[in-house]
Design a protein that fits this description.
By secondary structure, the protein is an alpha+beta fold. 26% of the residues lie in helices and 40% in strands. Strands 1, 2, 3, 4, 5, 6 and 7 form a seven-stranded mixed β-sheet that branches. It is globular.
């Protein structure tokens, strides 16, 4: 069964929130697997809360990254852009070693995971091409 996951691009003062994963010790976007019974929006908001203690509001869909051969079962990750609406940055130590906001222009060099780099590239393309600030139709759970 393919893995369905979510990532979130959280921007603050033109800096992107990155987390250093405990399992692979690489820098990436916050996120994880979608739980049974959850919407993609709910999973994205939950992952931000669990991994970095931030409450976020989804702003727009960045894209979907598919790797059908990943770990022999495949992986599909839906990526949203979000803004912080509450909480204070704090890591969940079972999954995250560090979390920090990094300048957008340096993030791709810092991240060694192909998925993160593709997502950040897409984020920059969409933001620049369309001047996106907020998309309609993405609902965050209350």
């Amino acid at each position: 069964m393919p893995i369905l996951g979510v990532n979130v691009v959280v921007i603050q003062d033109r800096k992107v929130l990155l987390t250093k994963r405990r399992d692979f010790e690489i820098w990436c976007l916050p996120g994880g697997e979608v739980d049974a019974g959850e919407t993609l929006a709910q999973a994205t908001v939950r992952e931000a809360r669990e991994e970095v203690a931030l409450e976020v509001q989804l702003e727009w869909l960045v894209g979907i990254h598919s790797r059908p051969q990943w770990l022999s079962c495949g992986s599909h990750v839906v990526v949203f852009a979000a803004k912080i609406i509450g909480g204070e940055l704090a890591i969940q130590q079972q999954e995250v070693l560090e979390a920090q906001f990094s300048p957008l222009n340096n993030c791709r060099a810092k991240c060694s995971w192909d998925t993160t780099n593709k997502c950040l590239t897409r984020f920059v393309e969409l933001e620049g091409r369309f001047g996106i600030t907020k998309a309609n139709g993405i609902s965050s759970p209350v």
